[in-house]
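Encoded backbone
================
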Amino acid sequence: MHASYPMINVLLTVLWTRPQVYIDVGVICYAIPRKAHHEYLRGLFDAGSGKRVMLGYDQMNRLKTNRFF
């Protein structure tokens, strides 16, 4: 799931109740200011969900070097 910014409490509830859910932060790293992004990630890591954070990439047209795209 996407990182559901700015609703971190909802996200942490989903992560706590669904251990198979991982977080994709690929979009919010471009959509919000850097300081807000770092604070949001710090909140996720401080809550113990750091191992479930992934950096996804929604801009597939930028991956032209990959042979599958």
